[in-house]
């Protein structure tokens, strides 16, 4: 028996009431959770000149970007379109870091024209920037420090075979290109993946950059990327942000003294800021007893939340409608014609057709990776802010599925007689 003394609430707002008001399936984000995480980062790094650059790809809704801006957070983008959304949300282009990986020179040019802070991910891009812009475009350089630690290989980016960054072993090549074109290097960057458990890996990455910094006397910032591990289930080993803050701050202060100037310390968290804030609310369509398992099929699938299938991610599930039902074991699946399992053999309070379930920790890489696969609508999105729920994205309609499709008249004739 799982007992709850009151209904499931977000900032005092009943989740079932939100479901009633906005319909299902629905992404609901709790602004307070996001603000809490920002505060935790700030207090952990109180001793340094910290800048938080929200990695917008985790959750790209403009209202979320506005919330970040309101909280004094800046932005990291991986495409010019993301940056444009950031500008619509009110960010200055100079507050937006652009960290492309393998994008076209046309897009790089656009980013430079917009005035974004360019983060260079390859020697060939560095050469190109030098050739076309000389010293006029200040760049940050993304280094691959060849550190990898634990985590899922699909989201790990710091190992030697990763496509990301310029190898630290190419340090002389970077320097040669920079000198040849007098490129203004204002930042050094690492982002080594998404699953660091402790401060040590960060510190090893930091040491690599601190050492490299001696090549570049005009730095403004050192950017440690992200990699904060968040809890998806109880007991998960997560990044201890306070501990990280203490250790990295101390190391950074030491470095700044040696460097001779105080630099800015940047982080680019995505998941850490928004994961916990998000809930994907779905409705139970069918409870199906098979020979070996009881399946719960809901009105959602990998088209709305792909993390379980793509990363084997665990998402806690709450039965919002029947929180004190007897515990039974279910395999929770979606409605997509494809294996789309959310959870296997999961104990849940008894699930009945119509029950509303909530997939927890769905704020990061949930909606932003959603698709229209199987010609399904993507969910609506709601932000609970200051105790009130606001619709921040409408539910899609059939017209949304057709938008952009072109009617070709030659295909509109009657059935053509078949050759036998
Ligand atoms: C994706 C990404 C991040 C954010 O990673 P999280 O694991 O969501 O915190 C930060 N920086 C860069 C360059 C990224 O590509």
TrEMBL record:
<keyword id="KW-0663">Pyridoxal phosphate</keyword>
<feature type="modified residue" description="N6-(pyridoxal phosphate)lysine">
    <location>
        <position position="57"/>
    </location>
</feature>
<comment type="similarity">
    <text>Belongs to the Orn/Lys/Arg decarboxylase class-II family. LysA subfamily.</text>
</comment>
<feature type="domain" description="Orn/DAP/Arg decarboxylase 2 N-terminal">
    <location>
        <begin position="32"/>
        <end position="275"/>
    </location>
</feature>
<dbReference type="InterPro" id="IPR029066">
    <property type="entry name" value="PLP-binding_barrel"/>
</dbReference>
<comment type="pathway">
    <text>Amino-acid biosynthesis; L-lysine biosynthesis via DAP pathway; L-lysine from DL-2,6-diaminopimelate: step 1/1.</text>
</comment>
<feature type="binding site">
    <location>
        <position position="307"/>
    </location>
    <ligand>
        <name>substrate</name>
    </ligand>
</feature>
<dbReference type="GO" id="GO:0009089">
    <property type="term" value="P:lysine biosynthetic process via diaminopimelate"/>
</dbReference>
<feature type="binding site">
    <location>
        <position position="365"/>
    </location>
    <ligand>
        <name>pyridoxal 5'-phosphate</name>
    </ligand>
</feature>
<dbReference type="Pfam" id="PF02784">
    <property type="entry name" value="Orn_Arg_deC_N"/>
</dbReference>
<feature type="domain" description="Orn/DAP/Arg decarboxylase 2 C-terminal">
    <location>
        <begin position="27"/>
        <end position="363"/>
    </location>
</feature>
<feature type="binding site">
    <location>
        <position position="311"/>
    </location>
    <ligand>
        <name>substrate</name>
    </ligand>
</feature>
<feature type="binding site">
    <location>
        <position position="338"/>
    </location>
    <ligand>
        <name>substrate</name>
    </ligand>
</feature>
<keyword id="KW-0457">Lysine biosynthesis</keyword>
<dbReference type="GO" id="GO:0030170">
    <property type="term" value="F:pyridoxal phosphate binding"/>
</dbReference>
<keyword id="KW-0028">Amino-acid biosynthesis</keyword>
<dbReference type="InterPro" id="IPR022643">
    <property type="entry name" value="De-COase2_C"/>
</dbReference>
<feature type="active site" description="Proton donor">
    <location>
        <position position="337"/>
    </location>
</feature>
<dbReference type="InterPro" id="IPR009006">
    <property type="entry name" value="Ala_racemase/Decarboxylase_C"/>
</dbReference>
<dbReference type="InterPro" id="IPR022644">
    <property type="entry name" value="De-COase2_N"/>
</dbReference>
<comment type="subunit">
    <text>Homodimer.</text>
</comment>
<dbReference type="InterPro" id="IPR000183">
    <property type="entry name" value="Orn/DAP/Arg_de-COase"/>
</dbReference>
<feature type="binding site">
    <location>
        <position position="227"/>
    </location>
    <ligand>
        <name>pyridoxal 5'-phosphate</name>
    </ligand>
</feature>
<dbReference type="InterPro" id="IPR002986">
    <property type="entry name" value="DAP_deCOOHase_LysA"/>
</dbReference>
<protein>
    <recommendedName>
        <fullName>Diaminopimelate decarboxylase</fullName>
        <ecNumber>4.1.1.20</ecNumber>
    </recommendedName>
</protein>
<dbReference type="Pfam" id="PF00278">
    <property type="entry name" value="Orn_DAP_Arg_deC"/>
</dbReference>
<keyword id="KW-0456">Lyase</keyword>
<dbReference type="InterPro" id="IPR022653">
    <property type="entry name" value="De-COase2_pyr-phos_BS"/>
</dbReference>
<feature type="binding site">
    <location>
        <position position="365"/>
    </location>
    <ligand>
        <name>substrate</name>
    </ligand>
</feature>
<comment type="function">
    <text>Specifically catalyzes the decarboxylation of meso-diaminopimelate (meso-DAP) to L-lysine.</text>
</comment>
<dbReference type="GO" id="GO:0008836">
    <property type="term" value="F:diaminopimelate decarboxylase activity"/>
</dbReference>
<keyword id="KW-0210">Decarboxylase</keyword>
């Amino acid at each position: 028996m799982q007992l709850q003394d009151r209904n499931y609430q977000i900032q005092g707002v009943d989740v079932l009431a939100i479901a009633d008001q906005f319909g299902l399936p629905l992404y609901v984000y709790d602004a307070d959770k996001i603000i809490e995480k920002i505060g935790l980062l700030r207090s952990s790094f109180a001793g340094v000149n910290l800048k938080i650059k929200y990695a917008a790809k985790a959750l790209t809704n403009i209202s979320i970007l506005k919330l970040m801006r309101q909280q004094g957070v800046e932005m990291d983008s991986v495409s010019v379109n993301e940056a444009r959304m950031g500008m619509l949300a009110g960010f200055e282009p100079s507050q937006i870091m652009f960290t492309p990986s393998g994008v076209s020179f046309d897009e790089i040019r656009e980013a430079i024209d917009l005035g974004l802070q360019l983060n260079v991910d390859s020697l060939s891009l560095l050469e190109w920037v030098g050739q076309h812009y000389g010293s006029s475009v200040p760049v940050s350089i993304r280094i691959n420090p060849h550190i990898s630690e634990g985590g899922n290989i699909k989201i790990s980016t710091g190992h030697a075979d990763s496509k990301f960054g310029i190898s630290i072993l190419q340090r002389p090549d970077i320097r040669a290109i920079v000198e040849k074109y007098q490129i203004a290097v204002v930042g050094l960057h690492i982002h080594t993946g998404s699953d660091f458990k402790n401060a040590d890996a960060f510190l090893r990455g930091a040491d690599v950059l601190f050492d490299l910094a001696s090549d570049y006397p005009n730095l403004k910032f050192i950017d440690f990327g992200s990699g904060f591990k968040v809890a998806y289930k109880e007991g998960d080993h997560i990044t201890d942000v306070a501990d990280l803050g203490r250790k990295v701050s101390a190391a950074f202060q030491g470095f700044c003294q040696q460097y001779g100037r105080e630099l800015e310390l940047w982080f680019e968290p995505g998941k850490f800021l928004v994961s916990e804030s998000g809930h994907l609310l779905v409705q139970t369509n069918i409870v199906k007893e098979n020979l070996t398992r009881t399946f719960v099929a809901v009105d959602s699938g990998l088209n709305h939340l792909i993390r379980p299938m793509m990363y084997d991610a665990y998402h806690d599930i709450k039965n919002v409608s029947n929180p004190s039902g007897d515990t039974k074991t279910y395999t929770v699946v979606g409605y997509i014609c494809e294996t789309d399992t959310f959870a296997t053999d999961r104990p849940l309070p008894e699930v009945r057709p119509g029950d509303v379930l909530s997939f927890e920790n769905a704020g990061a890489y949930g909606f932003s990776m959603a698709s229209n696969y199987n010609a399904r609508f993507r969910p609506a999105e709601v932000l609970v802010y200051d105790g009130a729920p606001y619709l921040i994205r409408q539910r899609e309609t059939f017209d949304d599925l057709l938008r952009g499709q072109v009617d070709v008249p030659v295909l509109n004739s009657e059935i053509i007689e078949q050759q036998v």
